[in-house]
Every structure is written in structure tokens, then in C-alpha cells.
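hiii, so i know i said id send this last week but things got crazy w the move. better late than never?? heres the sequnce for the chain we talked about at the cafe, plus the structure i predicted for it. fair warning i was half asleep when i ran it
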Amino acid sequence: MLSAKSLFQEILDDDESFRLFCSIAASGESQGGWENARIAALVPPDQRDLAPKIARHGADEDKHGRIFDALLKKRGLQPVPVPPDADYTMLLERAGIGLAHDRLRADQPLTVQDVVTYLAHSRVTEQRASEQMELLRKHFADHPDIGRAVRMISHDEDNHLAYCHEELLRLARAGHGRAIQRTLRECALTEIRVHRDVSLAVMSHMGRILGWSRPKAALLAAGVHAVYAGERLAGWHRMVSLTMPERRDTLGGPATPAPEFA
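okay and structure toks below
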């Protein structure tokens, strides 16, 4: 039976598909690390208390990128270039979601609205990351090769999501609630479309590597479209709600080091 577990197991068992998976993941995490580091350096003076948390967020993303690289190295594999149609972070930026890289490369301080844009973008994308890692943790938390990495990254993504909720609620209390809701809605609706397109692209690349039959590829593509339809109808609302997390100040300390994968 075709399931999320069997699908990922198939990708995990083949060196070439595993290499593509880890390369895509490592690239996205490393890009997120750079973005957060630049934002931490440019936050406006009245938001300087956020800078260490944003830097911690970036350090976690960098750590995740190193973890995926280490998983490749453990199997004697080298990363491959990320196909442009599977580059989630870059496609989001091109769609106008988050802060433009040209803005981050400039040495001009950000505004409070820029901080709202950053946090709203993070709240939406961390929702996706948290859910994806929860799925992997459900099926592979005890896997001898990737279990420790899955558990650590999943824990971090949950922390990132809690941090976004907490900081957006703080800014909402400071009078930015309307801007936050507008930005969250724009981010969520764009993200679900980009996620659909990237999912179809990744499935296409994996299908060629693994030699999937046309019926199997068509079934998987139909599943991606069905998920998008559900998210476009109502599922996106889960990405824009704000609730104070049970755990507070989840990014208030130093980043934990990446584990060794011998």
C-alpha cells in the first residue's frame, strides 16, 4: 500500500534519491540560516531584544543544514545541485514572501513592518516544517541511521514555531495586529501554492530516479493536488492563527550543537 512511510522508505533506501532529498533539505536550511543571520544584524533599535533569538533561529537552521550534509557523508555521498523547480526557499522569495534578499544584503536597518513580515513568513513556513518533521518523527524516530537527526530537527522546528507565535502576539499587543493578520494571510496563500509546485517537482525528480510507473506517479501527483485543494479551501487557516505557546522563550538560549554521525 502506498503511504507516507513507504514512500519515504523508498527514497531513504536508494542512494540517489536520498542524496537529492538531503541536498534539497540542506540547501533550504542553510539559506534560512543566512537569512536569519542578516535579519538579526539589521533589526531596528526598538526591537534589539529580538536579535539574539533571531540569531539563535539562524544558528539552528545552519545546524540542520550540517546534519543533512553529515547524513550524506555517512553514506559516502556528495550533495547535488538543487533543481530550480524544487528550491522552496528561493521560489518563496521570488513570489514576494518574506524579506527580499536584496533588502537583506543592504546595510540599512529594518523597520518594525519588516520584522512583522519576517515573523509572519517564519510562522507560516515553520508550521509546514513542524508538520513535516512530526510526520518523519512518527515513522522514523527510532531509525538507526536518521532517527537521532529527525528527533533533533523536529524538536527545533517546534521551538521555532512557538517562538513565532509568541513574538507575533507581542507585536499584536503593541498595535500591529491588523498588519500581522494581513501579512499572515498573504504568506499562507502563497506558501500553499509554492509548496504544491515544489512537491510536484520533487515527486517528478524522485520518480525518474526510482523508476516509478506512470500510474504511481499520477497517483502521487493527484495526492499533492488534493492536499492543495484542501489547504486552499480551508486548511491555510491553521497557518494564520496565533496562540500563546505552553513553552515560552524557546529561543532564549544558545543553539545546541549538531550531533556527530559516525
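btw The mean pLDDT is 95. thought thatd interest u
miss u guys!!
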